[in-house]
Amino acid sequence: MRRNRIWLIIIIALAIFALWVSLPDNAGIVIDSNGDGTPEVNFSLRQSLGLDLVGGLRVLLAAQLPDGSYTAGDLQQAANNVARRVNGLGVTEATVQVQGSNRILVELPGVTDPQQAVDTIQATALLEFVNFSGLGAQAADYDGRKILTTRQFEIASENEVQPEGEVSPLTGQPFQTVMDGSGLQAASPQYQNGQWFISFELTPEGAAIFGPYTGANVGQPMAIVLDGTVLSAPVINAQLTDGGIIEGNFTEQEAQQLALQLRSGALPIPLAVESAETVGATLGQQSINLSIRAGIIGIVIVLLFMVIYYRVPGVAADLALLVFIILNLALFKLIPITLTLPAITGFLISVGTAVDGNVLIFERIKEELRAGKPLNDAIEAGFNRAWRSIRDSNMSTIIICAILFLFGQTPGASVVSGFAITLALGLVINLFTAVLVTGTFLRLLVALFHRPLTQRAWLLGA
Predict the structure, then answer these.
(1) How far apart are CA 184 and CA 347, in angstroms?
(2) 292 or 248: whose pLDDT is higher?
(3) In angstroms, rounded to a whole number, what is the distance separating the alpha carbons of residues 130 and 180?
(4) The whole model's pTM is what?
(5) Which residues lie across from 108 on neighbouring strands?
(6) What CA–CA distances, in Å, run from 89 to 61, 65, 155, 251, 262?
């Protein structure tokens, strides 16, 4: 009995936390104590919604390198960088996944500016600090012009393409790259004196390069180059050991976009947009409301059936089913899982499997009671003997979900992944709620109403 009470406390605490997480208006906990715009605590709990519910942009990116010249890890790294850029656009419900051996699929629900999103995703954002020493006043003439640097020449040679851009008039060779964007630790847009600029911080490795160079070239110009184009060529006024600023007559949007690209890093593989389409929400708000209403009605009918058919065990099952639903909704936000119509369908099916586990247990208990076992012994035997059936049936379905998820990684089949994930998640949670949660509630109910339950078998559905 003491063990059941401990589990009851744990279940109630878990349910309260899950209920708080799953509240529709709960966006999480954000604490910005110093008001600098960067929260010290950012526990986001926004529910991600898919394209079929809110509409948005779907972009398919293709690698622009020959097969065999890059690895699967390179493609995954490119996808990770794309994901960071997308998140920087404020699209928290975005989906970025590798498709096949040379493509990346990006889905951006609710995007209002498709062109900006495509430009930000595709841009390579190769930032370079270039040696302009000796050019003097000529350095200012290079603003906005495309130059060829030693780093660009290396990349072009690796990719077997012809490099483009102006070379140094002093040497007739590509301009020397002092440091590229890999030496940056942070970058953020700043506004001061009517001008937008980028403030950056250096990594220890970047500082080891940048500090000595700027210290030895005080009074000389140094170009700041993005994707081969000179943004500006300021004069080095002092040694810079931990960071600096990038100026270039930016608008607010350009400054934010450039800072985002610099934080995200250059893409290890050049990507081209193979297709881009604006997707309208396939379900109107009325259809969504009807779908939610249908799901609620179905769950209420299941709850009523369990109480009417199994009586007191049905009450325990209903309480466990409510915990099951709350836990699922909370994990959808915590993981997070992007909810699409197939994903919602997978969740509703998992509700049915949760009830199925309880049905197996209660039928076992009824068989034990008919065989003449005492009530407590019948309950323990029912749970023990039904556990293997519940475990094996759930595991077999989870295996099918894993296969569906793998198929969902191929081009054009991503919609299957959401269904597989929510169904598998529900099956895993069911292993906890159908046995442990239902068992805890049922044992406590039996302890409270032991005499009437032993005298009136119909209260147990027997």
Answers:
(1) 43
(2) 292
(3) 9
(4) 0.64
(5) 57
(6) 18, 27, 28, 16, 13
Q: For 76-131, write each residue's pLDDT tens digit.
A: 878 877 876 676 666 555 778 888 888 888 888 877 677 777 776 766 557 789 99
* Alpha helices (runs of H) in 204-311, residue ranges in sequence order: 204-216, 252-264, 285-310
Give the chain's domains with CATH numbers.
2-25+281-460 (1.20.1640.10), 127-266 (3.30.1360.200)
**Longest CA span, the chain:** 103
Distance CA 95, CA 79 (A): 10
| 221 DSSP assignment | B
**Residue 113 phi/psi, 5° resolution?**
-125, 85
Q: How many CA atoms lie within 13 A of 161 on its CB side?
A: 10
Nearest residue to 170 (alpha-carbon basis) of 132, 125, 114, 199: 132
Helix pair 285-310, 341-370: axis angle to 10 deg: 0
pLDDT tens per residue, range 153-171? 887 787 677 788 899 999 9
* The predicted structure's pLDDT at residue 315: 95
Cα–Cα distance, 124 to 150 (Å, whole number): 17
Among 393, 307, 282, CA closest to 53: 282
The tokens for 363 are: 């039928």
Q: How far is CA 421 from the centre of its chain?
A: 13
Q: What is the CA radius of gyration of the chain?
A: 30
How many whole angstroms from its chain centre is CA 384? 38
Q: Which residue has the tokens 């699409």?
A: 340
CA distance 318 to 306: 7
Closest CA to 181 of 216, 130, 142, 144: 130
> Tokens 């309950």 correspond to what residue?
379
Q: What is the mean pLDDT of residues 209-221?
A: 92
- Per residue in 321-374, pLDDT (tens digit) is 999 999 999 999 998 888 888 888 899 999 988 899 999 999 999 999 888 899
Residue with tokens 């078998």: 457
